[in-house]
Amino acid sequence: MGVGSVDPTDPGLFRLWREEILRYGDMDTNGHVNNVAIAQFCEGGRVAFERCGDLQRENADLGLSLAKVTIEFRAEAHFPGMVRIGTRILGFGRSSCRLVQGLFQDGRCIATSEAVSVCFDTRARRAVPYPEAFKARALALAGPAT
Amino acid sequence: MGVGSVDPTDPGLFRLWREEILRYGDMDTNGHVNNVAIAQFCEGGRVAFERCGDLQRENADLGLSLAKVTIEFRAEAHFPGMVRIGTRILGFGRSSCRLVQGLFQDGRCIATSEAVSVCFDTRARRAVPYPEAFKARALALAGPAT
Amino acid sequence: MGVGSVDPTDPGLFRLWREEILRYGDMDTNGHVNNVAIAQFCEGGRVAFERCGDLQRENADLGLSLAKVTIEFRAEAHFPGMVRIGTRILGFGRSSCRLVQGLFQDGRCIATSEAVSVCFDTRARRAVPYPEAFKARALALAGPAT
Amino acid sequence: MGVGSVDPTDPGLFRLWREEILRYGDMDTNGHVNNVAIAQFCEGGRVAFERCGDLQRENADLGLSLAKVTIEFRAEAHFPGMVRIGTRILGFGRSSCRLVQGLFQDGRCIATSEAVSVCFDTRARRAVPYPEAFKARALALAGPAT
Q1: ipTM confidence
Q2: Whole-prediction pTM value?
Q3: Does residue A3 form part of some domain?
Q4: CATH (domain of C86)
Q5: In Å, what is the CA distance from C24 to each residue of A28, B51, B60, C27, D60?
Q6: Residue D4 lies in a domain
Q7: Domain hosting residue B25, numbered range
Q8: Taking a C-beta distance cutoff of 8 angstroms, is the pair B112, B15 a contact?
């Protein structure tokens, strides 16, 4: 899974943004924001992706399921403050979608992530194709700028 | 970062094990264990790695910092129950260590992970070389079987 | 809400036990187990209460909802290790149940809790009476010893 | 521990506010914000109390430690959205402080809390008196309106 020529440390890459307010409990005994909290912020960006395309509009049983995630931790993040998560669609497969993310605190890139997110039928409990209408809506808001 | 010929879905790969008891809050609205909880279990395995080699024995300021992690989600995990995390050292660099992990519930592989874990001086707040004595101790317990 | 004459710092008070394995992330920047983690352990004990009486046996839509909780923090708890949570029924109202809990690490009481737990119809999204059969089963395992 | 004549379901009671952005993971399998997340929001309000009075200004070793907390859950909270936490000082003892809190989503009170928060010397690991200067600063911002 490569990100090709895109640079997720550049906030200019992203149009879809999610903000999180840091919590005291996001810190660990090292006094910085813990990697598990950052994994949760990546999830926040994926939920923003799901919502920007309104995944449940045509089928209320659909949800996202994470197939694979890679996170690179690039700088310490510190409480208190906010983290902004930019999420961009790299491309859709049949039932999967590749996403790239950049996480920023005060304009500084603290982490980047790539993910393979699967369209999941929560009733049938199996992966299904992303609806074409969802793809179009999501690409319009979180795809490559045109 | 490749894992070469090792297969982390095979519990026989691992000698160092950590167990976690699942909590109700590990589940998400999909009714299965959430990916962020699984990221936390991977951290549990890395802490077991740190402890098996007694990283603070010669220098109390040392800790682990995560540089990069990849997690592949392979099967749903369900509450209640336990998850066992196997952790194996793939190799040491100067101040980094590559780890591979397999996570199992009831003998079934639910996730695998690769990580680059850095030796971090919590006072100086920068990466430092892993102590040779730590490497030897950790390899004896979590390295490739000889 | 009083606990009357019972002493929840005495492990002898409890017959229903739940165990939790502490996680690195349960600690906060003070280097001890955080109060929010302890609130989660109290939840673990309440889930054990729900399960000991098999709340869904006659009605799959039933669940617990917390109406009120009081936690007293009595000693620091430390990672790594385990916490044992004892839970005892103080008494049932129509749709509520009063519980008392003691949390112990290595035999030492780290916290005690009282809770009012409501029987919640997850479909109707309102409190309903606890089924009589559940009450009988739960009291047999988590009520006052006879 | 009583709150006397104050009504924490009235947002007009509070001058010190903390905001939290809800996260997907704050929800549980019931599809609403979990009680443990609400306990974390109460912590956020206590941290705001600590910060409004700048507890470390005269002594960097000081922190808060929670001695007792009571939370009443009054309405379901739902993702996505925000929660506002109002925190008000009820009174200082020698090394303890009684706080009352109201938590609101979209203007609706979802929970109220009372807490006894102790001034904790993180080096000596014991309760110490709140500094008089902290008390004055905190009361000016989070005490009863005058």
Answers
A1: 0.95
A2: 0.96
A3: no
A4: 3.10.129.10
A5: 8, 12, 17, 6, 25
A6: no
A7: 11-142
A8: no
